[in-house]
Amino acid sequence: MDSQIQQSHVHPSDLHQGEAHHLETLALREQFDTEAQQKDASTLGMWVFLITEVMFFGGMFLGYTLYRSNYADTWALASRSLNLPIGATNTCVLLFSSFTMAMAVRAGQLGKKKAVILFLILTMLFGLAFLGIKGYEWTQKFEEHHVPALANFHLEGTQLQGQAKLFFSFYFAMTGLHALHMVVGVGIVLFIIFQTMRNKYSPKYYTPIDIAGLYWHFVDVVWIFLFPLFYLIDRHP
Amino acid sequence: MATAAVLERETYLNASYGLKSWLLTKDHKRIAILYFITISIFFAIGGTFAGLIRLELLTPQADLVSSETYNKLFTMHGVIMVFFFLIPSIPATLGNFFLPIMIGARDLAFPRINLLSWYLLILGGVLAIYAMVAGGVDTGWTFYTPYSTSYANTYVIATALGIFVAGFSSILTGLNFVVTVHRMRAPGMTWFRMPLFVWAHYATSLIQILGTPVLAVTLVLILCERTLHIGIFDPALGGDPILFQHMFWFYSHPAVYIMVLPGMGVISEIVSTYSRKPVYGYAFVAFSSLAIAVVGFLVWGHHLYVSGQSLYAGLVFSFLSYFVAIPSAVKVFNWTATLYKGSISYDTPMLYAFGFIGLFTVGGLTGLFVASLGLDVHVTDTYFVIAHFHYVMVGGTIMAYLGGVHYWWPKMTGRMYPEHFARLSAVVVFIGFNLTFFPQFILGYQGMPRRYHVYPPEYQVLHVLSTAGATVLAVGYIMPLIYLIWSLKYGPVAGKNPWGATGLEWSIPSPPPTHNFDRIPVVMHEAYDYSAVPREVEVG
């Protein structure tokens, strides 16, 4: 008897879950009281996650900074061997993708489903284009013998092959880690597209689009740091 | 039948049955129990390694294990205890269980991520245990380069991967706690009404969020260097091994505070409850947690005094290491001041808390010895350092953990443990601990280096004392295991507030229902307001 009474104390959130299909305002999860609280929590969660990402990349940026100053000449030489037009093109591609991502979030806020899908597909295509160009650039490195793990590594114009190797180690580690984040980002965008098509979002509940956007912009910003560090510093001696 | 109906009140334990309902649970309380079981197993494994180390050191010769095996023993003892027991210990169990309840929330902000973090710990643990079964790892838990990347021919990769994965478990727990504290507090639960346990966990979470990713990236670089032979840390390939030490200790020193801050939170709760007084200087204790978290990030260089770090950097790190003693001392003084004119009862959790305060003080003060530039040259890499951090980790964190487990046991299980046995266990642990580790201070000061299993015969007496102490300590740890499990079935039923404690967790039934609160409470009182809590005598 007791337990029956307790069960009839239905929490308001249970009602939402039951009616979710009709209302299309999905998922006020049971631990939250209001939709605003849930959105705040999700957004804060993503920001905190991005802070951990900053620290994660930060370790590599620290290593980069140390060796850039210790081995300045060799690293400048190695940096000049990178393909600037390709790097610049990729920067533009990513900036465009961030623009379309921002448009998708705005469309989600306004409840324009078709626009959300269109902009997300564009974002994904830009992301894939970035990865394709990056892949082309990496294959070039193999042809130029600029892959540090291989025995045939050689950078022209310096005796200090060890220092040059370090440059390319960091180049591959940092752009590789960034590319991995792009792959995850493309996956997330794809997921959001499917969820949008299944009418999961509305102007009342578009938090996932919003926080996917945060992630996408973050990955973009990382590249905005990587590009000058690897391609631009000391370009013209 | 009437009594049966009362007993069948729905709790988080009987809301659903079956292994699946536990393995797929999103309830923070059940996840806490999963963590309890997991870290108890890891503690047993790590403790077994410690036992073997102590056995080997009983005699000056190598008669139990070879040098290679000994290297693996202390490495795996460190890896398991640090990454798979101490770091998740209090936050993932007691924190997971009580942090949401203490702030009046139905669950953590992200229950599914909470469950994910447990699976990550399991996955990491499986990798680490695989490495041990396959042949072990011998680099020391610190993985110093270039030995770990170029020369060690043991299972470095699997172990490092295991720690990497477990690190994400820790990050996600921290993320969950921070968001929960920011966004899930009940009406009226202002920041300065939160129990100090919550403050301590908030500060801990900040360290987990900011520190752990740096360890993760350091391990990624170790893995890259070991598999691809790129020379980021290997001087033979142009890299800098000191860079590794900086990156490793940037996490691993703050990690000490990940381990001990939650313990301090537990002690604040216990000292207040068993003195029946609010914690003296609440705001100071709250802010000292944050101060430890912040300043703790700026002291990592004291691990590098003899590694070739610049003397000027050493001076700054030494100063900051002294500085971090201030917030730690604030806590110790304020707990002591809380006792003053309190109505003190010597229940088991309080005995553990007294143990913590004394042992942490010894551990903290010897920390000043090793933080000084001159003295550290003498004691670095000796048993003095070993004794110092075991006083903080074992004498501090594990005492607090056991105290907390006893304190909240009635709430978690609805049962009381046998008080006499429990008090005895607290005393046995205290005696065993001191017998184990105090001789190591003297050993270290006399020059016994760490990580050696063959030593001059002069040191044997102290080593025998230490090994004898370890045996007593083991008994002290096995006792609670037995009587706590016994109490699950035979212990007297606990009331909702057997200690007459403050805090929202004591306002709900023991064990709590799945959603913690039938109605979200409105908090009207400051923390530790004993006038608001009538002393209930519900025991027995």
Strand proportion of chain B: under 5%
Give, in order, the helices and strands of chain A.
Answer: HHHHHHHH
Largest interface: A-B, 45 and 50 residues
Number of strands of chain A: 0
| First-to-last CA distance of chain B | 21 Å
Biggest sheet layout of chain A: none
Overall mean pLDDT of chain B stands at 94
**Unreliable residue runs of chain B:** 1-5, 536-540
Low-confidence stretches of chain A: 1-25
- DSSP summary, beta strand count of chain B: 0
How many helices of chain B in DSSP terms? 17
Element-by-element helix/strand order of chain B: HHHHHHHHHHHHHHHHH
Structural class of chain A: mainly alpha
Number of helices of chain A: 8
Estimated structural class of chain B: mainly alpha
What level of helicity do the residues of chain A show? over 70%
Radius of gyration of chain A: 23 Å
Note the overall shape of chain A: elongated
How far apart the termini of chain A lie comes to 84 Å
Verbal overview:
The complex is a heterodimer of chains A (237) and B (540). Chain A has helices spanning 2-8, 12-23, 35-70, 72-80, 84-110, 113-143, 161-197, 207-232. With 237 residues, chain A is mostly helical. Chain A is elongated and about 65 Å long. Chain B has helices at residues 2-7, 19-23, 28-56, 67-102, 111-134, 147-151, 156-183, 196-228, 241-275, 282-295, 311-323, 325-339, 348-371, 373-379, 383-413, 419-446, 460-490. The radius of gyration of chain B is 23 Å and the shape is globular. Chain B is mostly helical. Chains A and B meet through helix 1, helix 3 and helix 7 of A and helix 7, helix 8 and helix 9 of B.
